Amino acid sequence: KAQLKSMGLSLDWAREIATCDPSYYRHQQKMFVDFFKAGLVYRRKSKVNWDPVDMTVLANEQVVDGRGWRSGALVEQRELEQWNFRITDYSEDLLTALDRLDRWPEKVRLMQRNWIGKSEGLRVRFEIAGEAPNGDRALEIFTTRPDTLFGASFMAIAPDHPLAKALGARDADLAAFQERCRQMGTSVAVLEMAEKEGYDTGLRVHHPFVAGLTLPVYVANFILMDYGTGAIFGCPAHDQRDFEFARKYALPIIPVVLPSGADAASFAIGDAPYDGEGTIFQSDFLNGLTIEAAKNAVASRLEGMSLQGTPQGTRQVNFRLRDWLISRQRYWGCPIPMIHCEACGVVPVPAADLPVVLPRDATFDRPGNPLDHHPTWKHTACPQCGGAARRETDTMDTFVDSSWYFARFTDPWADTPTTRQAVDSWLPVDQYIGGIEHAILHLLYSRFFTRAMKATGHAGLDEPFAGLFTQGMVVHETYKTPQGEWISPAEVEILEIDGRRQARRLSDGAAVEIGSIEKMSKSKKNVVDPDEIIGGWGADTARWFMLSDSPPDRDVIWTEAGVEGAHRFVQRVWRLLGEALPWISGPVRPPSNATCEIALGLRKAAHKALIAVEDDLEKLGFNRAVARIYELTNALQRALAEGDPATDPALAAAFHEAFDILIRIIAPMMPHLAEECWSAMGRQGMLATADWPVADHMLIVDETITLPVQINGKKRGELTIAREASEADVRSAVLGLDIVVSALEGREPRKVIVVAQRIVNVVA
RNA sequence: GCGGACGUGGCGAAAUCGGUAGACGCACGAGACUUAAAAUCUUGCGGGGAAACCUGUGCGGGUUCGAGUCCCGCCGUCCGCACCA
User: Fold this and answer.
1) Confidence class of residue A188 from pLDDT cuts 50, 70 and 90?
2) I need a surface site. Which of A11, A636, A657, A689 has the fewest CB within 10 A?
3) How far is CA A757 from the centre of its chain?
4) Is the torsion defined by CA of A288, A293, A294, A296 positive or negative?
5) Chain B: nucleotides under 7 Å from a protein CB?
6) What is the pLDDT of residue A491?
7) What is the pLDDT of residue A206?
8) φ, ψ for residue A204 (rounded to 5)?
């Protein structure tokens, strides 16, 4: 309810929207079933933070200090059977394919790389000395640094590791320690502050290479059960965390990596571990090897050693990426089309029965999932045996919907989720534009989903988005009253007093503090209503300002002054057009070449602008395109002041052509103004459907060029010379310049560098 | 802590391959028009200097005929990840 309220929606509206058109759900459910049959979907018990008041699952960020932030209630840990997509099947592929996405920002690719988090290492089994309470005879750990095995001084396992649980069952102190860790585990804030803590279980394991050496096994609060095997060996000399732990519990710190140049006899670890490059020492058969070679040597040796009938070491690639949990206990979402039958297990809803639609008469008068406590909705018959069965009441994460809409859009009325002909011919998306906030989740899920669609025959490609561009946000100043209350820009007037910008509240003139520039948000009230912008300035002005102010990948600061400037430009174009109207009506006549200087200059300016704008738009350089358009407008205004088209038909034709180009290059950014101008010029149809003008590249080639002339790398003058002049001609002309002659004082230059069409540098 | 990006006028920013730093806009100053204001137009605008000229792209070095751009080392800002073994 709170969520709906914040969206300004009533319950009736929510029901209406959630149930209005089930066709997309039908196709999504069809694909879900196909994924299920292909083994890409599975159910897994997972621990969740359960809010006992709202009867809902809380996201991690909703939990602070063991309490849910919305209800303030204590959070329970529960285990729920939930649906997951097997995105981890594609970890390696999702990672390596990033290298081929060359039209994606490096930043996004890097974020995905880190998120997938590949690490190559070794699983090592340590023989347990004596007896473990659960009967385990070996402790398996994962490490990326097997080269430091001879520096091992302890083992650490996660508090919820099976071995730790078994040990805790007969050791009350350990159980209490584990309980403390569990309480802490849910709180991000505590985690950051938490000191490394451990509990010595008394259990010991044998070092695989050093006969007679045993290592103590600790339960430690910093070991995660869901990474690797939930257990590590600690090498304090070469790992920050292990180092801190060893200091606290007075464990040996044995260096085994020697930095180059250090003396093996005297090298010791001081206040910090050493994690750099070096040569292995104090390590038996590894001595003298590089880190990489030692990793290999250890892996090979352990692979060949047998412990209790299995190899003692196994090379393993580990990923940070987890499977994608899509179950949501909410009304709002696409129902998961599955049926639970006592006899047959989990059975997909048959295609003919799709879509499974949400009930319209769901109620929200008590906590929990409305689908679950709806009186009839979940009761159904098993499609296989016909017996009484129960519908899945979880709905899908809405990221599922956004993971394939672009594929559906290629044939939106098709009776199947996609049609291969359409999806193969349209995809991949050439240019995707979105915010950086989707860098990981949405863009990674879509990449997975496209692969899953390929695996189930719904598409034929791996990568959905060939080009990606991440645009910035619109941001605005914030305003705060002395009472600390945020107020909106509409309630504030900005004044310049004593050369300082100051703000006052419109209603009573009270002083207002101008705060930092931030992303527009309702909480800070620094929002500008789009309807008011369009009502007050027009859509063209708003768009022109946003495009002109900053490059599109950066944030644009919304300012009243900036918008006014943009609006002035709209008026100026319209006014200039009005002044020139007598000469620019009807179809463009081909401008004569026998023209006056003003006309020729104008033609060059127009074609130069056209060429530049084409290039800028192609590269999404809208702010640069705007600057080029300003330049052309300035040139037009100057020409209109200087020349008289009434007495010069060539000039009139040049104006006609220049205005024609101007309004066409404005059109993509200010369509309304452009159409109005188009119509005022007496042109037929709509500009939007007219062809883009063709630039005359020959026209902008000048016969003479002006080269900057440098002496010893500093600009001292200019040289105007024929474009076709040879290097020798340029050289002798430069040496004849007064500034060059006086600088040389009769000596020969040491060197003259002529860069064609660019610059000349005389080294004296 | 790890990883990355970026530092250019009062402000937003340009500078395509190492080749005239500050295009274009905003703000501001001066002037014209006006009884006045708004709008519009003209003009100035990195810093120093009367000028010639000097100086200037976070700081310190380097490469080069030439560096905002390339290399090394600092400083600062922002972003992402974060007990990942």
Assistant:
1) very low
2) A689
3) 42
4) negative
5) 1, 3-5, 12-16, 19-21, 23-28, 39-42, 54-55, 65-67, 79-85
6) 83
7) 95
8) -135, 155
